[in-house]
TrEMBL record:
It catalyses: ATP + protein L-histidine = ADP + protein N-phospho-L-histidine. This is histidine kinase. InterPro entries: HATPase_C_sf, HATPase_dom, His_kinase_dom, HisK_dim/P_dom, HisK_dim/P_sf, Sensor-like_sf, Sig_transdc_His_kin-like_C, Sig_transdc_His_kinase_DctB. Residues 370-580 form the Histidine kinase domain. Residues 322-354 form a coiled coil. It comes from the Bacteria. One of its GO terms (molecular function) is kinase activity. Its EC number is 2.7.13.3. It is found in: Cell membrane. The chain crosses the membrane at residues 23-43, 290-309. Keywords: ATP-binding, Cell membrane, Coiled coil, Kinase, Membrane, Nucleotide-binding, Phosphoprotein, Transferase, Transmembrane, Transmembrane helix, Two-component regulatory system. The keyword Transferase applies. The keyword Kinase applies.
Amino acid sequence: MQDTGFQNDAPVPPPGHGRRVKVAVVAIIVVAVAVVLVTNRWMSERFTESTRSRAELRLALYSGNLLTELQRTSVVPLLLARDPALIGALGSGDFSTTSQRLISFQTEIGAASIMLLDRDGRTVGATNRNLIGTSHRTQPFFIDAQRARDTVFTAAQRDAGIFDFTYSKAILSDNRLVGVIVVAVDLMKYERAWAGLQDAVMVTDSTGTVILATEPRWRGLTIKEALAARDAPSAIRRALQATADWAQQPPDAYLKGEAVMKTDARVPFRGWRIVTFTAYDSVRERVNGILALEIMGFAILLALTFYFLSRRAWSQSMSFQRESAELRLLNARLQREIAEREKVQKDLAVAELTLAQSSKLAALGEMSAAVSHELNQPLAAMKTYLAGAKLLLQRRRTEEALASFQRIDDLIERMGAITRQLKSYARKGGEAFEPVDMRFCVSSALTMMEPQLKIRVVRITRTLPRQPVMVMADRLRLEQVIINLLRNALDATKAVPSPQIDLVLAAGETATLTVRDNGHGIEDLDNLFEPFYTTKKPGEGVGLGLAISSGIVTDLGGRLTARNADGGGAVFEVQLPILGADIKAAE
């Protein structure tokens, strides 16, 4: 091509070119506005649901912490009300060591505070020695404890608006009221922990009154009255920042004109509810980040459109470059925020792992109590066999003594097997199951109980079918259940002139083992399988046998029931699925 000398000149736009540029720019702007609006609505709804889900998860964690603290403390009055030292001090009037004993209990159990009141409501022992001598005869926890024989929970509001949460129980001696034990529950520590969070949290009782809240002025009010407070709470002041109503969904509530997300859940304790208020600012920030990226994309597209459609856009390119630089800064800021959020998520994952490890340690603690309880029976049998072997050796009956030593060796092996159960509790249930004939379990349990049966004259009858009764179970744990039931039957027939225990094994739709005695029967069927419930004297048992047995049978897919017999005595039934029926159902 011949050089004409005009190739560096700007081309002259054809007629109508400016109009086409304007139409293209308007079209891009219209599309950008439509995409931004649709994206804003869709992402707002999605992030709102995500924020609500996280709020519900935190709510479940808060509720679980409250319930765990309440349940853990509710057991303390049951134990202290049966303490012989406290009952003796109330009877004799000597309280010189009572406070020190309560302080030792507080250290071991981890309760907030403990008080011992006499029958007149006067404090005779307390972990806080400044309270000794004060009178509480008009307090609800003292009055309600005298009227009920069970543990009483009381939530009372002080003048400062703070609620005191206590468990109290009457202390009886020969069915006479001698005093009241009062254990305080420290729920304010959760309130202090919540105050450092972004969400506003409150807990209401069954009447709708706020008893715990991140804002102190909410206590004692209803939710409606709390939300109508004129001054913005300190927690909400941090949580709410000029939230624009871009979510396009009606807010759950308003706090001082600001839209917030309300999440509530039921605490399974006396009709309590827990409520959290979460601001929409986190949703707005996430949506704005995505919208900024879209706007940046459309800005780049608009710049390219101007470049290709008209050379006149060169004069405006610098402004677009400045806008691009600002968008890059915005993008960098968004990336930093994303990195910070990822760090928060990692911290949350570490907290969840810590909570799971705490749950495992709690389960191992319960298992340790169960193992120590189950080792008492082999130890008692070993003591009896050793005494018999010593007597046989003195009489030069060596072979019979060797037989006793062999039984002691079997008991040692059994004790080792019991301790190895700690490993099985760390695995998922069902890994150690195998087909077991319940007839052999009954025979093995009777063999285990043979030393105790020889000490007393007890008539034992057993009715076993000729055919095998096969179940899928852990043989050792099933034998533990049968031994616990036999021990309870032996204890129940101590005061009976002609003690008798009947064992009946039947196979129908389920395998049913019935253990019946002619003892004094069961007085309290409702609390029979509760941990630490026992009718034995102090030192003879801790009340874990039936609770452990019930848990084992439940793990095996069956159930353990108890009732009083018509002719006197107690009847315990262990029902387990037949192995054949399980296989047929699986097929």
